[in-house]
Amino acid sequence: MSTVEIIDYITGNPVLFAFMILLVHSLQRKFYKNIFTAWIFDIFGVFFHEVAHFVVGAILNAKPFAFSVIPQKTQYGYMLGHVQFSNVKWYNAIPTAFAPFLLLILAFYIDKYFFVFFEKNVLSYFLYLFIIVVTITSAIPSSQDFKVARSSFTGIVFYVVLCYIGGYFLIERLL
User: Fold this and answer.
1) CA distance 152 to 143
2) How far apart are CA 51 and CA 141, in angstroms?
3) Do 145 and 97 form a contact (C-beta atoms < 8 A)?
4) What number of other Cβ atoms are within 10 A of residue 146's Cβ?
5) Residue 33 binned pLDDT confidence (cut-offs 50, 70, 90)
6) Rounded distance, CA 160 to CA 31, Å?
7) What percent of the chain is predicted at pLDDT more than 90?
8) Which stretch of DSSP H or E encloses residue 155?
9) Segment (H or E) for 85
10) What is the pLDDT of residues 107-127, one digit of tens each?
């Protein structure tokens, strides 16, 4: 098998592809000897994670006023980035907190179009895996994101009802 055929086989097999993503992610974590190397490996992911919060917060009137991707030491370890808001309310807390999930859409398009722009070879494949791993892991909300999301009982009830109604109409339309 040629390199291109191997790459096509791995990316076409969900189990092997997931294994490769986990392998690259674990190798990436092995290089986290200190905050500097962690920051170097995660800077792009942290940047897009925080941009997602910032954009969704700005759209939903959460009024972002501070944005940083510079690591800061906290009592629990390090915070690689943050966005601060001055107007987190029941209607914008959950979408703003879970905004990084939108990065999964970016991961989908990277997966779909990466090899349109890059030749299939071992180097580009590992670059592709690295970008996919960084994008997917950056889409995972942090513990602070979950705290913000559950900060408003009214917001939780509102979005649960909204998802229920939306799901009902979606199912009705599909059937």
Assistant:
1) 16
2) 13
3) yes
4) 12
5) low
6) 40
7) 47
8) helix 153-174
9) strand 82-85
10) 999 989 998 999 888 889 889
Domain-wise residue ranges, the chain: 3-174
Backbone angles phi, psi at 74, to 5 degrees: -120, 175
Separation between Cα atoms, residue 144 and residue 99, nearest integer Å: 13
What's the average model confidence in pLDDT over 131-155?
90
Residue 137: pLDDT band with limits 50, 70, 90: confident
Tell me how far apart the 2 most distant CA atoms of the chain are, in Å: 57
Residue 24 tokens read as 């690259």
Rounded distance, CA 11 to CA 21, Å? 10
Strands 82-85 and 64-68: antiparallel
The model's pLDDT over 51-86, given as tens digits with 9 standing for 90+, comes to 999 999 999 999 999 999 988 877 877 788 999 999
Q: What is the pLDDT of residue 32?
A: 66
| Residue among 27, 28, 6 at smallest CA distance from 17 | 6
Residue 78 sits at the vertex; the CA angle it makes with 101 and 67, to the nearest 5 degrees, is 55
In DSSP notation, 41-65 reads HHHHHHHHHHHHHHHHHHHTT--EE
pLDDT of residue 148: 93
